[in-house]
Design brief:
The complex is a heterotrimer of chains A (400), B (90) and C (284).
Chain A: E1 3-7, H1 9-19, E2 24-27, H2 34-46, E3 52-55, H3 59-71, E4 76-80, H4 82-87, H5 89-98, E5 103-108, H6 122-125, E6 133-137, H7 140-155, E7 163-168, E8 177-181, H8 184-190, E9 208-209, H9 220-249, E10 258-261, E11 268-272, H10 276-289, E12 294-299, E13 301-303, H11 307-316, E14 319-324, H12 337-346, E15 355-359, H13 369-385, E16 392-394
Parallel strand pairs in A: 2-3, 2-4, 4-5, 5-7, 6-7, 11-12, 11-14, 14-15, 15-16
Antiparallel strand pairs in A: 1-8, 6-13, 10-12
Helix pairs in contact in A: 1-2, 1-7, 3-5, 7-9, 10-13
Chain B: E1 15-16, E2 30-34, H1 44-48, E3 54-57, E4 60-63, H2 73-77, E5 83-87
Antiparallel strand pairs in B: 2-5, 3-4
Chain C: H1 21-32, E1 36-39, E2 54-55, H2 62-76, E3 82-88, H3 89-95, H4 97-105, E4 110-116, H5 151-156, E5 162-166, H6 171-183, E6 187-193, H7 197-200, H8 207-216, E7 223-226, E8 229-232, H9 242-246, H10 257-277
Parallel strand pairs in C: 1-2, 1-3, 3-4, 4-6, 5-6
Antiparallel strand pairs in C: 5-7, 7-8
Helix pairs in contact in C: 1-6, 2-4, 3-4
Chain lengths: 400, 90, 284
């Protein structure tokens, strides 16, 4: 049941895309997704992937090409990172409104200036307002699974919204591990063809999106509400897809939205996204051996934000710390995007736990065992005292 | 928005085939009048009307005044001078 | 062109009275038939409702979105459908210029139309790089001091199989070129001079007449480049002076005789250039 191959995150994504049988792919290189699109190009050139490959001239064009293709009923794929994602920002906003279920890979990388070729989650988190779903993968195995799941989630009739699946630049995208590659026939069973009836350009079907039509003019409020509803409804779909994947392929990622590690009797929890989760698990085990009641929550789905899960966990723990591999300059109380969202999720609890924000990993700086130990100690201290010493801490800052 | 419309009525992705009724005839100041004696039914007025407001019938061109914006291209292009622009009612 | 039996471009649009955009689109769709998919709006001249499936992603990505549709149709085996990409001059020369260039170099199988009304008309007449020399626009109120980009020749040197310049007044020429392009597979480029009464400041009734005068005064040479073979498709015995074309347009009302002479000289030079390519294989 599935073959094991040594693959890094980018290879895994390329293979996952091939297994999902897209019709049109548009590729443009940017570190660190370059080997992903090289892989896609090789697979289409060799005929293993039967998609039409469009080598575009910039990322804005890449997304425009796949949007046009999806409007004509094709299943598509594209990928980008950092500057490329920001370059296609204009088109990114148009896709959810047209309900085109595109799937796009983001290999997280810092946005300049100052920039780096290494991992920061800013590029994908920047898209949190426009209606795209976002899933964060921890390692190459999760990447290949999430790639295929993404098509199923996005194309579900209850969702019909585009989805980003994110992998940490270099740390996940270029680190090779043994990956269990699902069999094509099982993937075909799991993933039916793209149901494009809702939006299908064809001469027999003279549709045109016409927001300015007299009947529909000035209805952005209603259209935005509809997208919001679909996004919230996507939570059920993500959970269902996760369960079904677990049954068919033997791997589940928590409940699909989050994965809890040793939180049952935890007094304090850390929340992580992406590859740093692996390091965090090791430290949680070490500290548990020392008798310290620390737990870990891996946040897999950032959009739609798993509010209910956070409320449930927030109600039972005595402190929570969010490790943000990103920043939001000038945010309320400072901190990264994750801690700002979490504070909103926990705000109306009868008993709110102390919430600490940690900024770590910016520019690809490794989040080490020592860093996690430090953060976990801070969280447990807050759990004990009920107080937060500092609302946000840049834990890796060089202060001389 | 006249009737009580609900957000649930909006077609998904706003992929619509319906068209609103936009009677642009109210825009015109001048309107074309056809002199059927001079008209040779060449059809240039039909081809050049930007609003597709002129149709060729057996008795000659027929103008749909619901949509005619009164631009005057038909009058200018008519080779026999069969179309003249007259000031319409307010 | 036969008088249309079925309306494809419909009335009730928000185009200005006398806009030649709908006329151009009607010529295109009545010639190409019903098996088309449109991408892009073609500037504000594309504001009329139509019986054609269409999608648009703003003027910054016209050629790319059309490429996506082309590739999807290829992947699905729906090869009898013609993809029509309609861009305004702002899109073609500025915002989508890179996209247009790349799509042409990929030789994507579509018909691309630059609907050239010579400025960003939808936002109220601001200059684009296809605005002619010395024309008034709101962003060049003293007249544009730079020349109009020769976009058809630029596209010719992208080695695309077909390039044509057309204008609605010469509709038989337009129809013939459309039919020729429909036989070819690859990237076909059409540059349509589309007079705009609002932006050019002229009497709406004269819109088609100005389209005709543009050709008769050398301002807009009509030619086609079929697989590198250049051919002028309209050669009058005598040309009219440019002043006949510039006169009715109040966007040129600030010109004095010296400037009109300058424009006449430029047009004479450009016509000599065009003439020197006539009948030649320009890629040799």
């Amino acid at each position: 049941m599935g073959e094991f191959k040594i693959m890094d995150g980018n290879d895994a994504a390329a293979h996952g895309v091939m297994l999902s049988r897209p019709d049109v792919v548009a590729i443009f290189p940017i570190t660190p997704n370059t080997t992903l699109i090289n892989g896609v190009a090789e697979l289409t050139a060799s005929g293993k992937m039967k998609a039409k490959n469009v080598t575009v001239e910039n990322e804005h064009a890449a997304l425009s090409v796949v949007a046009g293709a999806a409007a004509a009923g094709a299943r598509t794929f594209t990928a980008s990172a950092s500057q490329g994602v920001v370059h296609m920002e204009e088109v990114l906003w148009m896709i959810p409104g047209s309900r085109l279920p595109l799937v796009m890979a983001i290999c997280n990388r810092s946005i300049s200036n100052p920039g780096s070729l290494m991992c920061t989650h800013s590029d994908s988190l920047l898209q949190r307002d426009n209606g795209w779903l976002q899933l964060y993968c921890e390692d190459a195995q999760e990447v290949i699974d999430t790639t295929i799941q993404s098509y199923r989630i996005a194309e579900d009739k209850r969702v019909l919204l585009p989805i980003h699946f994110c992998l940490d630049g270099y740390v996940t995208s270029a680190c090779a591990i043994p990956v269990n590659v699902p069999d094509q026939d099982k993937v075909d069973e799991f993933l039916p063809p793209y149901p494009h009836e809702h939006f299908y350009l064809d001469p027999t079907n003279t549709i045109r999106p016409e927001p300015g039509l007299p009947n529909y003019r000035g209805l952005e409020t209603e259209q935005r509400y509809i997208i919001d509803e679909a996004l919230i409804g996507a939570k059920e779909v993500i959970k269902e897809v996760n369960d079904e994947w677990g049954e068919m392929f033997g791997r589940k990622y928590g409940n699909g939205l989050i994965e809890e590690y040793r939180t049952e009797d935890a007094k304090g929890v850390l929340v992580t996204m992406g590859s740093m989760t692996g390091t965090a698990r090791v430290v949680v085990d070490q500290m548990r051996d020392e008798g310290k009641p620390i737990g870990l929550v891996k946040l897999r789905t950032f959009r739609p934000f798993p509010t209910e899960e956070f409320k449930r966990i927030g109600a039972k723990v005595d402190a929570m710390g969010f490790v943000d591999r990103n920043f939001s300059h000038g945010a309320a109380s400072g901190g990264g995007i994750g801690v700002v969202e979490t504070s909103r999720a926990l705000y109306h609890l009868d008993e709110r736990p102390p919430l600490l924000g940690f900024i770590a990993g910016i520019g690809g700086r490794d989040v080490t065992y020592e860093n996690f130990r430090y953060m976990a100690e801070k969280v447990l201290k807050a759990a004990e005292t009920g107080k937060v010493e500092k609302e946000v801490e840049w834990i890796q800052l060089m202060e001389g | 928005m006249s009737e009580k419309m609900s957000y649930k009525d909006i077609p998904i992705g706003l992929a619509v085939t319906a068209r609103g009724q936009n009677y642009t005839g109210s825009w015109s100041i001048f309107r074309p009048g056809v002199d059927h004696d001079k008209c040779t039914k060449c059809g240039l007025c039909v081809i050049y009307c930007p609003e597709a407001a002129i149709e060729m019938t057996d008795s000659g061109p027929s103008v749909d005044y619901n949509y005619c914006k009164g631009c005057g291209i038909c009058g200018n292009e008519c080779p026999t001078g069969a179309i003249a622009m007259e000031r319409g009612e307010a | 062109m036969a008088i249309e039996e079925k309306k494809i471009i419909l009335p009730g649009g928000n185009t200005c009275p006398g806009c030649t955009g709908p006329i151009v689109h009607r010529i295109i769709y009545n010639t190409l038939g019903k098996n088309v998919i449109q991408f892009g709006g073609g500037g504000c001249g594309g504001g009329s409702p139509r019986d054609v499936p269409s999608y648009s992603l703003h003027h910054s990505g016209v050629a790319s979105g059309a490429t996506g549709i082309v590739k999807a149709l290829e992947a699905q085996g729906r090869t009898d459908i013609t993809v029509v990409a309609l861009a305004g001059d702002g899109a073609a020369s500025n915002t989508s210029f890179g996209k247009l260039s790349a799509a042409a170099l990929r030789d994507d199988n579509m018909m691309f139309f630059t609907c050239d009304n010579e400025a960003y008309m939808n936002t109220g007449v601001q200059k684009s790089d296809l605005t002619p020399y010395n024309a008034w626009t709101r962003t060049t109120p003293l007249g544009k001091k730079t020349r109009k980009m020769d976009l058809p020749m630029i596209m010719a040197y992208h080695y695309v199989p077909y390039v044509a310049t057309v204008t609605p007044a010469y509709h038989a020429d337009f129809v013939r070129k459309l039919k020729r392009a429909q036989e070819i597979e690859g990237f076909k480029y059409f540059h349509v001079l589309q007079p705009c009464p609002t932006g050019w400041r002229h009497d709406p009734a004269k819109a088609i007449e100005l389209s005709r005068l543009a050709v008769q005064t050398k301002i807009w040479p009509l030619y086609e480049i079929d697989d590198g073979n250049f051919k002028i498709t309209y050669k009058p015995r005598e040309f009219k002076p440019v002043s006949e074309y510039l006169g009715p347009q109040r966007r040129y009302s600030h010109l004095d005789d010296g400037m009109v002479e300058e424009i006449q000289k430029l047009q004479d030079e450009e016509w000599e250039n065009v003439l020197s390519r006539d009948g030649k294989y320009i890629w040799g």
